[in-house]
Amino acid sequence: MVRPMKLVLYDYYRSSASYRVRIALNLKGVAHERVPVNLLEGEQKDEAYRALNPQGFVPMLDADGERLTQSLAIIGWLDRVFPEPPLLPADTAERAHVVALCLTIAADIHPINNLRVLKQLAAMGIDQSGRDDWYRHWISEGFAALEALAAPRAGRFLFGDSVTTADVCLVPQMFNARRFDVPLDFYPTLVRADAAASALEPFAAAHPDRVAPAETPG
Ligand SMILES: N[C@@H](CCC(=O)N[C@@H](CS)C(=O)NCC(=O)O)C(=O)O
């Protein structure tokens, strides 16, 4: 039995790394509060927030005063503290495969399309259309690799027939891809797994449209 714990998630509704943690919290059925950090207004760089998370990123999860950062580290922590349902396979080789799927997204696609990278491209004189091409390029290249890696062992979800952390990473990245009109026809395994996972309430309840501040335009 897990002792009662106060969990506070610092996040931004459209941050895909935050979206991953919202999904994981929902899958575990863990009660938590949310503190929005407005990335477009630069609140992540405020001194007060940086005093909590020196990296100036969301998400951050405060667990009874223990401040956890990095979405995959937070999800790994949640999986240890709240073991049901498990988000990684028990088998060592299968676990390594699922972690590889996660990192293809979280380490190789997502960071180069981060807000600070897009801002730096703008500062270097790359216009909006060039920045959008950049964004689409890295998702398309990453998704091609992910499709090839995932397809042989995919089932209903990205790995097999149970939700894993790979689906937790996939769904927010697919949301980003659609926002930027990335053509998805080449990635049937990703599209199928995304649809199956997104239909589940823990995923649906974490969607940016469901958690956006009331005054945010659609
Ligand atoms: N590797 C980190 C990435 C976190 C991250 O990139 N967060 C973005 C939002 S998705 C952020 O806070 N960006 C702020 C900025 O770029 O200034 C994680 O997985 O938690």
How would you portray this structure in words?
This protein has 218 residues and is an alpha+beta fold. It has 10 helices and 4 strands, in the order βαβαββαααααααα. The protein has a 4-stranded mixed beta sheet, covered by helices on one side. A hairpin with a 2-residue loop joins strand 3 and strand 4. The longest helix has 23 residues. It is globular. The chain starts with 6 loop residues before the first strand and ends in a 7-residue tail after the last helix. The mean pLDDT is 96. The structure holds glutathione. The site of glutathione (GSH) has 15 residues, from helix 1, helix 3 and helix 5.
Q: What are the low-pLDDT stretches, counting only 5+ consecutive residues below 50?
A: none
Structural class: alpha+beta
Could you give a short account of the major beta sheet? 4 strands, mixed
Helix content: 40-55%
Ends apart, CA distance between termini: 41 Å
